[in-house]
Amino acid sequence: MATTEPRQSQPLDVAQLQQELQLRDQLVQQLSQELFRLVKGNDDPAPELEAQHQEELQRLREQFQEVEQQVVLYQERLTQKDQEISQLRQSVKELGDRSRRLEQVVQELPQIYRQKFAERMATVRDKVEKLQRENRQLHADLQSVSYRLAVKNRRHSLSEIELPTFNPKGGSPIPTFSTL
Fold it and tell me: Which of 28, 37, 65, 78 is the most buried (most CB within 10 A)?
């Protein structure tokens, strides 16, 4: 019995396979016809679908243009930011250099101040020394004059006081009202 069953099922399987083969052939024929119409352009299967595709394509193009414009704007902004960054870096470098120079000047200020003060004090010292020399000279002259005056006063005090003499013979040294 087992041998008879596969033989009876074989014609059924063959029939089913033949049916599937016919269905496949029909589908292949329909697809080839559809393909032929699409390639030739004779078929306008769905003008509404074509219009939709065109509209969608147009929207995509517009979106693409908007994105391109945004990209251009972003690139311009990036370029501007890059320039700003470059300028800021240059400013930072210049300010750093200036800061270092100022720090150096600040560190040198006490020495410069001492040097300038010493230069100014040198002229003041020279003037003070000159004035002191003059003062000593004047003091020495004053002492010399005082000494001579003291010596002279001693001599005069010992002798008579010197009075000016008048010449009575030549006339009167005192003016009178008549001679005027």
Answer: 37
Structure tokens at 45: 């299967």
* Measured CA angle at 78 (ends 75, 80), to 5 deg: 110
For every residue of the chain, DSSP letters joined together read -TTHHHHHHHHHHHHHHHHHHHHHHHHHHHHHHHHHHHHHT---S-HHHHHHHHHHHHHHHHHHHHHHHHHHHHHHHHHHHHHHHHHHHHHHHHHHHHHHHHHHHHHHHHHHHHHHHHHHHHHHHHHHHHHHHHHHHHHHHHHHHHHHHHHHHHHHHHSPPP-----SSS--SS--TTT-
More confidently predicted of 146 and 159? 146
Contacts of 162 (CB under 8 A, 6+ apart): 156
